[in-house]
Amino acid sequence: MPGEILSQSEIDALLSALSTGEMNPEELKREESERRVKVYDFKRALRFSKDQIRSITRIHENFARLLTTYFSAQLRTYVQITVGTADQVPYEEFIRSIPNMTILNVFEMPPLDGRIILEVNPNIAYAMLDRMLGGRGTGLNKIENLTEIETKIMSNMFEKAFEQARDAWANLVEVDPILTEFEVNPQFLQMFSPNETVVVISLNTQIGETSGMINICIPHVFLEPIIPKLSAHYWMQSTPKKERNIDEITYIQNNLKDTKLPIVAELGTTNIAIQEFLLLDIGDTIQLDKMIEQPIELKVEGVPKFYAQVGKVNKKQAVQILEEIKGGDRENE
């Protein structure tokens, strides 16, 4: 076999078998000839090379990381999304592989032509919906009974989530994801011919205790304009890894800056007996442990961070920060 090196003992054994008639040279040639013939299914045309599939996988590995960060912040629970598989199949095969009733989001991504399908397993979709509405993230499957409110919440949630594709594809092309259709029945999505080659990227998704799949279906016509960029040579010349990591760090930092923190200005504290508490009535006065001229503590997430004084701004109660409380963090408590 080409590229295979035999040891001296294997060569001796092969020559011995040929000389004794245990092996027939003609049969070996015939087997080698038959081995070179491969069955080709024209209905399952392979239009992408392995190198191009690997490039698409790299894009969606980055996309999966961005989705993990986004959903972790939005749902405030454990979220883990990773690329499972990436394969090219006929569109008909993709439609047969997904549930009869599921969550289907159709996106356009100008300036590229064509549309992308984001299919979300019902258990995952309902776990996300439950978390968005303040629940524990329980997965259900009652897609056929989606209410208008549930449909609106889900479509908005996945529309905003898919905006992360803008950053994931940035090294190849600047895209602008737009949700154009929301459907639950795959039979109503006859967007391509049954034999059209599509790339299906399956994302393993964990939302709290619920797990499932998110599938991204990309047709060949969508990728055709950027196929030359889907090569290892192009990726080697693209943005250095250090710069890509800086972009991810900047993205996370920007999201953290929008996080809301509760701030409490504590005027003072006191201790009273339960009996006194039960006897409290309108007009009673509770004496605190702070004098009126003393600065009060300003707490962030329950941690004392600043000293402040009470005042008014535009007829509204306010506090003015005087100084930072040294060691006012959880590590030094």
From TrEMBL:
Gene3D superfamilies in alphabetical order: CheC-like, SpoA-like
GO cellular component, one term: bacterial-type flagellum basal body
Membrane topology: Peripheral membrane protein
Any GO MF annotation of the entry: cytoskeletal motor activity
UniProt xrefs under Pfam families: FliM, FliMN_C
InterPro entries documented for this protein: CheC-like_sf, Flag_FliM, FliN-like_C, SpoA-like_sf
Residues covered by the Flagellar motor switch protein FliN-like C-terminal domain: 255-325
Protein origin, superkingdom: Bacteria
Major location (coarse): membrane
One BP annotation, GO: positive chemotaxis
Signal peptide (residue range): none
Protein's UniProt keywords contain Membrane: yes
Keywords: Bacterial flagellum, Cell membrane, Cell projection, Chemotaxis, Cilium, Flagellar rotation, Flagellum, Membrane
Family membership noted in the UniProt record: Belongs to the FliM family.
Function of the protein: One of the proteins that forms a switch complex that is proposed to be located at the base of the basal body. This complex interacts with chemotaxis proteins (such as CheY) in addition to contacting components of the motor that determine the direction of flagellar rotation.
Protein name: Flagellar motor switch protein FliM
Lineage, uppermost ranks: Bacteria, Bacillati, Bacillota, Bacilli, Bacillales
Gene: fliM
